[in-house]
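ok so I'm stuck.
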Amino acid sequence: MKMSSFSERYNKRQGIGGAIVGVVVIVVIIVAALAGYYAASASITASTSTQFSTVTQTQPPVTNTVTSTATQTEVINGTVTKTLTSTSVSTSVSTSVSTSVSTSVSTSVSTSTATSTYEPSGTLTGAGSTFVFPLMSVWSFGYTQIQPNIQVNYQSVGSGAGIAQITAGTVEFGASDAPLTAAQYAALPAGSTLLTIPEAVGSEVPAYNLPGVTTSLHFTGNVLAEIFLGTITMWNDPAIVALNPGVTLPAHAITVVHRSDGSGTTFVWTQYLSDSNPTWAKQVGFATTVNWPTGLGGKGNEGVAGVIENTQYSLGYLELSYVLSNPTLITAGQVQNAAGNFISANQTSVQAALAAGSGSLPAGNVPWTTVSIVNAIYNDTAATKAYPITSFTYVLVYQQQTNKQTATDLANFIYWVVNDAQSAGLNIGYVSLPASVVTLDDTTLGTITYNGTPVL
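replied:
not stuck anymore, here's the structure
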């Protein structure tokens, strides 16, 4: 199956003929994430003689053994081969490339689901966050390997659309990086309860395409807000120069890139800008959709990444995995935290933000409107190593389900995501949920019912 780059997908959506950059992003993400998942969760023996793997899933008290192919091949115009082993993934990606993935592993994986006596079968549909899409792609693929009778179809359409679709009942689950607003809770079907379940933790970074500058530039929240307001327009503006001594910045205009769709990524980013700059807070504010003062729009994180790839001297905001998968064309900046330190988004800094900002969380069946790691750590000078633009991403499901099989399949899939599959995100920019949040999620999942009876 042909996998297109961010720019190819973006250009196709916009009706622009011919992509400039051909990077097979999702293949790279899936291979890297699976490497991390198996390295952390499985005992792997590399095999050169077979391209099949045996996966054993423990489902107390039933044990299922599933034999499935573990080979993935992508071909676009030429060939690049990647081999997954227990210790490394060798990946070669260049612009306008053809990619094939050859995975040869023999592995035993022990995972668990919450329900021990049901037979999984069916298709689960979800929609929403592009922030979580790279990780959701890995989860969807991985779950099918241990539960071949379950298919998980996820549409990366943005958090705003995901909330709209779960509200309308057209999907089994929504995904959003922004908790529902009071108005969105009020718009839910009468008598229903929508559960909010943190599924992962990630970060958003200032992402730019700046020819001749390989340094990870320093930014403050105020400077980023001034850029997105259109007040700072040049890369060599004194405010940017002062933050980056020793870096020669070009006398070239900044092309601002932002989302064009309803977006949880936008919600988190604009929340940080609102905290950082009173003019931004007053004139623009924060929401999944705002009236942008300047810039070009791209649909989804994929679309924004496509614009940045193809536009020199541009700057936008992206979930970290979209930068890690395309480091030759997009660079992530460092952001100053409350302690005055310039911090790169990585496992250590996002975990520090999570530890400082997750605090006391509400139950899953009550509103999460005010929950924000960004707000919680914005003035926390003690969080010296915390990356300031860190966020949960949530899966949204109804507590009262109308189909027992679907309800059980859905609850078990999310249980697996929360309890067994967190390591899948470690190589692609996500951080695992802490034990306290896993416990909270498991409690919430235990309240999912069919005809008043819990399905787990």
